[in-house]
Write a structure and sequence with these properties.
Radius of gyration: 13 Å
Number of strands: 6
Number of domains: 1
Largest sheet: 6 strands, antiparallel
CATH class: Alpha Beta
Distance between the termini: 13 Å
Oligomer: single chain
Strand content: 25-35%
Shape: globular
Helix content: 25-40%
Structural class: alpha+beta
Number of helices: 2
CATH architecture: 2-Layer Sandwich
CATH topology: Alpha-Beta Plaits
Order of helices and strands: EHEEEEHE
Amino acid sequence: MKGKYGMQVEKSRYELKQSPRQWYKRFDSFIRGKRYKRSHYDPYLYYNKLLAGEYIYLLLHVIAILVTSKNRSIIDKLKKDLSFEFDMKELGEAK
């Protein structure tokens, strides 16, 4: 993949016992509303097929999100959409 970018979700969401589940339900509803599909093999992996036949992938891991695609502009758009809905911190390109 051309670019892999990480973001971190605000930690305070995880202070209460039910917070992780509630946050995941909210995230799942939001991202699926953007026409992303959840993987049948991993409930924390989402993908969307772009018009040019390329894909964008989003992987949740604890409080981090990894986004990857060959199309940088679609990554930037997704990051912008996510930052409007959730408190996010940009971690830069994944290593």
